[in-house]
Specification:
Elements: E1 2-8, E2 15-20, E3 26-27, E4 32-33, E5 39-41, E6 52-56, E7 65-70, E8 73-79, E9 89-95
Parallel strand pairs: 1-9
Antiparallel strand pairs: 1-6, 2-5, 2-7, 3-4, 7-8
Length: 101
């Protein structure tokens, strides 16, 4: 599975994306399973500007969560409830619901 994220959040600061690993997951580099949801920064090459899209090659499982941060502001989260059995692209478009959010 592949992840494609588009930043449609109109804000002067760019967006960082984090993946919360499900508690049953094994972290890379021998960290082993964790009971909590550690955050792994996906935007290591720099945050995403408004009106840009980016593909991420990251393992995904049911129970994983994605957190979207604009500066120090939490722009939202997305939880994976299930994934198809075949290879697919998960497209997430992050946008502001209204002027007050």
């Amino acid at each position: 599975h592949r992840l494609r994220v588009c930043n449609a959040y109109p804000y002067e600061e760019a967006m960082d994306i984090f993946r919360g690993v499900a508690p049953h997951d094994d972290l890379p580099n021998g960290y082993g399973p964790r009971k909590s949801h550690p955050l792994i920064k996906l935007t290591v090459d720099g945050p995403m500007d408004y009106k840009t899209c980016r593909d991420f090659l990251t393992p995904m499982k049911a129970g994983d969560k994605f957190k979207f941060m604009v500066g120090n502001y939490n722009a939202g989260t997305f939880a994976i409830s299930d994934l198809p059995n075949n290879d697919a692209v998960l497209l997430l478009v992050i946008y502001r619901h209204d002027r007050l959010s």
